[in-house]
Amino acid sequence: MKIAKIIGILLAVYVGIVVLFESLLGYYQPEQGNTLIITTTDSDGNQNDRVLSTIDDEGTLYVAANHWPRAWFRAVQDNPEVAVTRGGERSEYVAVPVSDEVHERLDTVVQPLPFLIRFLTGFPPRYFVRLDPVS
Fold first, then answer.
1. What is the pLDDT of residues 101-129, one digit of tens each?
2. What is the reported pTM?
3. Number of folded domains in the chain?
């Protein structure tokens, strides 16, 4: 019984760490040189902005859903037409799901996540989309 109690406490502490880390990250949305702001439109027509890290693979722009909070990703699945603000420039894009092969390469070769980040975010599944500019 004592072991189960200790495991339960450790699990609760870990969940608290993940919630705190994700909440702080979502609140502060740090912008760095490799970030963009994606503007999605939900089914009600509401626009929402989210700061995301960019993945530039040989001139092709990708973004990833790396965290449990992923409303932007669900919105992209419903409406792939997005606006991207990068370096002060706003452009229109279409978010395209990637193939399994591209997903594997991005996840393991191009931009693997360090264990510490995966741990702090609670090991969420990772999804990628390619951002194709609208002509």
1. 999 999 999 999 999 999 999 999 999 99
2. 0.84
3. 1
